[in-house]
Structures are given as structure tokens and as C-alpha cells.
Write a structure and sequence with these properties.
Elements (H helix, E strand, L loop, with lengths): L3 H16 L4 H12 L4 E4 L6 H10 L1 E2 L2 E5 L6 H5 E6 L4 E6 L6 E5 L6 H13 L1 E4 L2 E4 L5 E6 L12 H4 L4 E4 L5 H15 L10 E2 H12 L5 H15 L12 E3 L3 H17 L7 H5 L2 H5 L4 E2 L1 H5 L4 H11 L5
């Protein structure tokens, strides 16, 4: 039976797909990240509605949100906050930075230097911020939805592997088709004329927390749980599933990948109005949850091997049952 919370998220899902055209994968990934208390990384060229999608979601939620524009001159204190000296009291007072929000949009995240990434890593991984000798907890609802420019663009940095591993999902966007481009023009014109109604009923923090509890109750059949584990293990020893895969992967997904895939497929099933995970749920999210946790060997890169293709091959070859 579909719950009231599932109905609310279903309405939100429909609304977002009406505002962000031909990007159902991105919409589902944003909602899944919200439901599993995870983080989302979106990569694509400028103008593909990466920022717009996250801002549209934020407008539908009755929670604290903030957008941070990442730039090469950004400093850790710009996102974490800092101790400020107050002459009247002759003391330091901590002023919270934008990370102390529920939904943080980290725009063009790979343009910021290493120290900023380190501060963000602690927030994403530990749900806390450390300033000097003091540690401050972040809100119970805290997720980073980051956009990333394509790596071959000037002024970009490669994110550390440890930070990439903290993102539950990775989504890459591509240019829209002809028909979609036409629909985008119509949508923009209607927006400029204020002819689009806002989302009718914003979701509060209590709704999100309650939905997360329902997601935890989604049933994962034992054989599918074992399939998830075998898939992750296959990224570490891909040669077991074909000589053509030998020497392609430098390192595979960590146990955090197993945890993320398990959580994401439960949320996917819940969004579909079901109380049990199916094989299709898993196969539809393997690339999004494992792509950014895998590194190819230099030989594979030279051969222009695609991580997505390797994952799709493993997904097809790893047996569902043994």
C-alpha cells in the first residue's frame, strides 16, 4: 500500500520532471540522495540545468538551503564559518558558515583548492565542522548536492578519491535532443511570464526524516543483497568475469560503495511505491553509485575504455544467484 509520504514524494517527482525536462535520472538521483541522507555529484557542461535542478528542488522543501559558488580563491572559513573577535566582550564568537544548512548547493565544486575540499570532506563524511579546538555538529538533515565541470575545462581540479567516495551518487548530463530543446524554450518563456505554478505543498524536515524511516523498512531479498555484494567485489577483481576485463581497473569500489548501492536501491523502490527491491532497481543504479568510486589503469585510459561500459559489462556477467 502506498503511504501518504510516498504520494507526496511522487507529486514532487512529477513536478520536478515538469520543470527539468528530459532529466529523469537526475531527478531520481536528487530525491534518492535526500531519502538516504546522502550526497550527490552532477557533472556536465555549462547550461545543462545542473544548478537549476538543485535550486528547483530546494524551492520545494521547507528547509534551510544555501548556494556556494566555488572559486579558486575560496577559503575554508568561507564555507565552515570562523571565530570572530568581539572587542566589547574581549572574546571570540563562532559564526556559522553556509555549511550549517540542510541542503547545500556546491556549484562548480572542482574549481576550489585542496584546503576547501578538505573542509568539505569532513562535513560530508563526519557531519561536523572543526574550527580550532572546537567541533560543531551539522543538522540532522544535511546533504551536499554538488555540480562539477567536465575535467578537460580550464581551472578545474581533480577531486580527491576520498571525497568522491563520500558522494552517494554521480550523474553525468548530456546535451538534450531536438524535441527537448524546443520544449525547453517553451518552458523558459512560460517561466518569464510567471505562468508556472509553484509546488503546492512544500515538504518539511519532519516529512523527510519520516520518509527515511520508511525507506529503511523496504525489503531487500537475500539473493539480491548477495548480488550487490558480488557486483562490488567484481570491481576489485574484474578479471574473474572475463579476460577482456583484466588490467582495466586500478582500484575498485570500497565497502562504502556496497552501502550506498544498498541504500539507493531501497530508496528507488520506495519512490516507485513498492516495499521490496527488484533486480531492475539494482541494475538501474549500478553506474550512478559506483562510477566515481572506480579508477581505470593508465592502459585502459589510453585505450579510451569507459568506466560505465566496464560496469555495464560486470552487471551483465555477475550472476544473480550462485
Amino acid at each position: 500500500m502506498t503511504t501518504e509520504l510516498q504520494k507526496s514524494f511522487s507529486l514532487l517527482r512529477v513536478y520536478l520532471n515538469e520543470r527539468i525536462l528530459a532529466q529523469p535520472q537526475l531527478i531520481d538521483s536528487m530525491l534518492i540522495a535526500l531519502l538516504i541522507n546522502g550526497h550527490l555529484l552532477v557533472e556536465g557542461l555549462p547550461g545543462l540545468a545542473k544548478t537549476k535542478a538543485v535550486k528547483t528542488l530546494a524551492a520545494c522543501l521547507d528547509v534551510a538551503t544555501h548556494r556556494i559558488q566555488f572559486t579558486p580563491d575560496l577559503e575554508p572559513r568561507d564555507i565552515t564559518g570562523a571565530d570572530i573577535f568581539r572587542p566589547e566582550s574581549n572574546s571570540y564568537v563562532f559564526y556559522k558558515g553556509p555549511l550549517f544548512r540542510n541542503l547545500v548547493l556546491a556549484d562548480e565544486i572542482n574549481r576550489a583548492p585542496a584546503k576547501v575540499q578538505s573542509a568539505l570532506l569532513e562535513a560530508m563524511g563526519e557531519r561536523q565542522v572543526t574550527i580550532g579546538n572546537e567541533t560543531y555538529r551539522l543538522p540532522d538533515i544535511f546533504l551536499v548536492m554538488a555540480t562539477q565541470n567536465a575535467m578537460d575545462q580550464d581551472g578545474t581540479y581533480v577531486l580527491p578519491a576520498a571525497q568522491l567516495d563520500r558522494f552517494s551518487l554521480f550523474v553525468r548530463l548530456h546535451y538534450p535532443a531536438l524535441g527537448t530543446e524546443r520544449a525547453i524554450l517553451d518552458l523558459v518563456r512560460n517561466e518569464e511570464k510567471n505562468q508556472l505554478a509553484p509546488f503546492s505543498k512544500k515538504l518539511r524536515g519532519s516529512h523527510i526524516l519520516a520518509a527515511r524511516q520508511e525507506v529503511l523498512d523496504v525489503v531487500m531479498p537475500p539473493d539480491l543483497q548477495d548480488y550487490i555484494i558480488r557486483l562490488v567485489l567484481a570491481t576489485r577483481e574484474p578479471q574473474q568475469y572475463g579476460a577482456d576485463l583484466d588490467g582495466l581497473i586500478r582500484y575498485g569500489a570500497s565497502p562504502r560503495g556496497t552501502i550506498a548501492l544498498d541504500a539507493c536501491v531501497r530508496a528507488k523502490a520506495w519512490l516507485e511505491g513498492r516495499g521490496i527491491v527488484t533486480l531492475q532497481d539494482i541494475r538501474s543504479l549500478v553506474v550512478e553509485t559506483l562510477h566515481h568510486r572506480i579508477a581505470l589503469t593508465p592502459e585502459a585510459v589510453a585505450q579510451k575504455v569507459s568506466i560505465d561500459k566496464v560496469l555495464e559489462t560486470l552487471t551483465a556477467r555477475v550472476p544473480v544467484q550462485v
